[in-house]
Amino acid sequence: MRFDILTIFPNILDSYFDSSILKRARDKKLIEVRTHDIREAATDKRKTVDDTPYGGGPGMVIKIEPVYKTLKKIYRPKGDRPLGGKVTRDKKTRVILLTPRGNTLDQNKVKQLAKYDRLILIAGHYEAIDARIDKFIDEKISLGNFVLTGGELVAACVVDSVSRLVKGVVGKEESVADESFSFYDKQSKQFNIEFPQYTRPDKFMNLAVPKVLLSGNHKLIKEWRQKQSKVR
After folding, report:
1. pTM recorded for the entire structure
2. Distance between CA 89 and CA 78 in Å, rounded?
3. At the fourth CATH level, which superfamily is domain 178-231?
4. Among 71, 143, 144, 170, which is least packed, fewest CB within 10 Å?
């Protein structure tokens, strides 16, 4: 599974991707994460990638040219129509703009994205990216009804959540199968939330582990966990 992140801050996520499960997955070559600096496509001496918005208003808008050029450097964008020749695009690649205007990321979407071989994630910053980028992407994704300073954290969430579904990334596959949001009830349109977990010691201060978990009775333990699971 390959992830390409287009950003004006190419090193901002290095420590996250170089730690824990994602680092082991990269070392084993189960996933590949590449960042691409949008500023490298800027043509002026100052490597300017933003400008004031047409129509006025506060903030700055990332220009379409450097974003498009960066995307085209690594992949033939949707909507690209060169003179002569047929446009060919890889059906196993998905180009995603990370924006508050996108659909909210949930586990159903994560499962859909995990079916691709490659995800190209465009991280906006400042006020937005010039809206003409919409012509060259496949979809938009948001984390929810709140605003971040940029799309880089959203990119990290997409990489992390999708990587966990790549075979071999998580040690025990049943850990992924039984975790929160693994099951979705289409009728109620709700996800399950995993039951509470406990480990040693069985007593901490005046707080004890539920007796059923110490009973060794797997049937009762399963029933207890089902009752403790929540839907949302």
Report:
1. 0.87
2. 8
3. tRNA(m1g37)methyltransferase, domain 2 (1.10.1270.20)
4. 144
Encode pLDDT of 48-72 as tens digits. Answer: 999 999 999 999 999 999 999 999 9
Is beta strand 32-37 parallel, antiparallel or unpaired with respect to 2-7?
parallel
Assess whether pLDDT exceeds 60 at residue 181: no
The CATH number of the structural domain formed by 2-163 is 3.40.1280.10
Residue-level pLDDT at 180: 47
The most distant pair of C-alpha atoms in the chain lies apart, rounded to whole Å, by 76
Instruction: Quote the radius of gyration of the chain (alpha carbons, Å).
Output: 22
CATH 3.40.1280.10 in the chain is located at 2-163
DSSP string, 140-153: EEESSSS--SBSHH
Q: What six digits make up the tokens of 123?
A: 């991280």
| Cis amide prior to 201 (ω within 30 degrees) | yes
